[in-house]
Amino acid sequence: MESLNHTFAPVFDENSRILILGTFPSVKSRENNFYYGHPQNRFWKVTAALTGSPVPETIEEKKAMLLAGRIAVWDVIASCEIEGSSDSSIRNVVPNDIAGLLAKNGIRAVFCNGGKAYELYVKYCEKQCGIKAIKLPSTSPANAAWSLQRLTESWRAETTAYLI
Does residue 164 surpass a pLDDT of 80? Predict the structure, then answer.
């Protein structure tokens, strides 16, 4: 069990309309110093499909695609104890200031990438934020029951109205 701090900033600007929250960066994401760094995570394929963009490769391309698509990305947790990348091992959570982020832009909806992010948002952030989150199926490779097509369709159905 390691005690770790989140080390990279949220991606957002004044045009962001939705916020997608993960739990805490995986080992691969921490190594890459950016969100959804595991090569099998489908986050970048799903968000590229939502925005009608090619799948981004570099951190700069990823940020540009998110901002052009009016999507903000962050994680619920600022620091915690965690074993590797295991969400189920997370202990001693200190949440990020999600309410502070929401005060800086026009975000109209909060989405959680998976059940653990949703559970943590409800527990630590929802009351301060005043926005009920919508739980999306996880893009993690651990969620193998969901195909890329099914994930994309579910995410599109939930997010489209907020991105118009």
Answer: no
Neighbouring residues of 155: CB distance < 8 A, sequence distance ≥ 6: 46, 47, 50, 136, 137
With H, G, I as helix, E, B as strand and everything else as coil, classify residue 22. strand
- The domain segmentation of the chain, as residue ranges, is 2-159
Q: Among the residues of 59-163, which ranges form H helices? A: 59-68, 98-102, 115-124, 126-129, 148-163
* Of 67, 72, 69, 43, residue with least CA distance to 137: 43
Per-residue pLDDT reduced to its tens digit, 75-105: 999 999 999 999 999 999 999 999 999 998 9
Angle (nearest 5°) at CA 38 between 129 and 59: 70
Q: Which residues are catalytic?
A: 41
Domain 2-159 superfamily per CATH: Uracil-DNA glycosylase-like domain (3.40.470.10)
